[in-house]
Structures are given as C-alpha cells and as structure tokens.
Amino acid sequence: MNILRESSLDPVSISQWRWSPFLEETINHLSIFNPKPYSIPREFLQKEVSLELKSKSLKAITNTWACSTEKLRQVRAACVEAGSAASVLNLVINPMYTFDLPFFGADFVTLPSGHLLALDLQPALRADKRHTEFVWERLLPLHEYWQPFLPEGGPIPQEAKPYFSPGFLWTRLPLGVKGDELISDIIKPAFRAYLSLYLDLVREAKQVDLERSKVLLAGQKSYMCYRANKDPARGMLSRFYGVDWTDNYIHKVLFDL
Ligand code: DBV
C-alpha cells in the first residue's frame, strides 16, 4: 500500500516495486552518517497518475527519497513503479564538492523489453589522477570480479564516456526467472560491494582546500548538466506526467546542483 509521504526521509512503500530491498539496504547503510531530510517539493515527493497505455489502464507512481549528511550534499532515489510498463530505481549520491569523492550512481530499470542495469562510481574530474586513482584501484577489482557473471550491456553513447569510470558495471538481462536469478545472485551482492566501497571512501575523505573545491565544483556541475540534459528517463516520465512536471523534476530535484 502507498502511504502519504510528508518528508524526503519517509519510507517509500510501493506495492510490487521490485527494487525496494536495494533502497532499504542503502538507507540502512546511511543511518550511521546521521542523515537529515533533504527538501523536496511536495509535488515531487510522491506523484501518481492513472493512464491508458497501449489500450491498457495503468497506474504510474514515482516517489523521491532523499537525504543529506555532513559529507554528502544530496543522496536521492527516484523510484518508479508502473506495473508491466516500468519499474525503476535511479539512485545518485552527490558528495559535497569540498571532498575529492566520485558520485555513486545506480540505474536499475525494468521495462517490457528486459532489465537494464548500471552501477558505477562516477568521477567529477575524469582526467585528474588525484580524483580518480585512489578510487579506481579499489573499484576495478570489484568490476573484474562481478562483470564476467553478466551479459555485456552493449555500447553506450560516446559523449557519455567522460562521465563513466572503468569500473562501470553494465548489463541487460531478460525478464523472467533467468533475469531474476542474476539480479538476486549477482546484481545484489555487486551493488552491496560498490556501495560499501563508496561509503568507506566517504568515511575516509578529508576536506580539500578552497582552490581544489572550486575545481571539483566545476566538474560536478558539468556532470550534472550532462545527466540532466541527457536523462534517458525523460521520455518515459513525460508520457506519465507531462513535459512540464518532468522538466522541473529533472532540473530542480534529480540533478539540482
Ligand atoms: N535514468 C535516470 C533517471 C531515471 C532513469 C533519473 C527516474 O538517470 C531511468 C528514472 N534509464 C532510465 C530509463 C531508461 C534508462 C536507460 C527509464 C530506459 C530508457 C528507454 O529505453 O526508454 C545508465 N540508463 C539508461 C541507459 C544508460 C543508463 C546507459 C541507456 C540509454 C540509451 O540507450 O540511450 N543512468 C546511466 C548511468 C547511470 C544512470 C550510467 C549511473 C550509473 O543513472
């Protein structure tokens, strides 16, 4: 059942939403960082429509969970459940730009054509060794271990490459038992491994000086612009909720820096 959500920290409970254990695990891990609510306008905390799609009636629900902590500017999850049409968890952890930290990103998308699953620790400054090296040396072994269990995800847009790490875990899986098994046996523990590495990096991170933070801020802004302008969910969200709501959601909530 859906409950009315008043704050960004209120639990997201959408019946049938397959990604709920992933969000719950994230929230549990974050609890030691003393999370505070992150202001999300009410119209984006919870949005629900009933619509006709391919002559089937359908309910599309989108919930936004979010928090901030001392070192994390915004942690936010976009949670979409639209029955057979879509089920999505898009999770991004945005660090404060006063720390040399990557973004944590997960995009778990179930569509009628199958699952599309992406997981990464994405750099704000791809070409800057001080920003990447200490992350990649710990991330690459996780990628090397988990990716071979999964089918290749296929090509990604060339212009997206600067925003990915070499530890980008990326796959497309079929619907049904086979896909479900790979999600529980591989995606679940891989998610856990990426997230716990990320949270270790957060724990270890020390504040940088003003000069450095300006460079990091510029890198973060470029990443945000890219994600907002190229958001692959724009089409789906616009079909559900209209262009205006979607545009505001993308620019003012999902990628708000
Ligand atoms: N993607 C988002 C947000 C979503 C969302 C905020 C609210 O950034 C969902 C939901 N992603 C979403 C949907 C699709 C994709 C696809 C609905 C399918 C679009 C469609 O086929 O209609 C990873 N996600 C994709 C694609 C990539 C990613 C590479 C395929 C794009 C394409 O084929 O054009 N998204 C990308 C990525 C991260 C991410 C690397 C971070 C790890 O969040």
Give your account of this protein's structure:
This protein has 257 residues and is of the alpha+beta class. The chain has one domain (20-254): 3-Layer(aba) Sandwich (oxygen-dependent coproporphyrinogen oxidase). 39% of the residues lie in helices and 25% in strands. It contains 7 helices and 8 strands; from the N terminus they run αβαββββββαβαααα. Strands 1, 2, 3, 4, 5, 6, 7 and 8 form an 8-stranded antiparallel beta sheet that branches. α1 runs parallel beside α4 (177-204), α3 runs antiparallel to α4 (177-204) and α6 (234-241) crosses α7. The radius of gyration is 18 Å and the shape is globular. It starts with 19 loop residues before the first helix and ends with a helix. The model has no long low-confidence stretch (mean pLDDT 95). Bound molecules: 15,16-dihydrobiliverdin. 15,16-dihydrobiliverdin binds at residues 78, 80, 88, 90, 105-107, 109, 116, 118, 120, 156, 231-233, 235-236, 254.
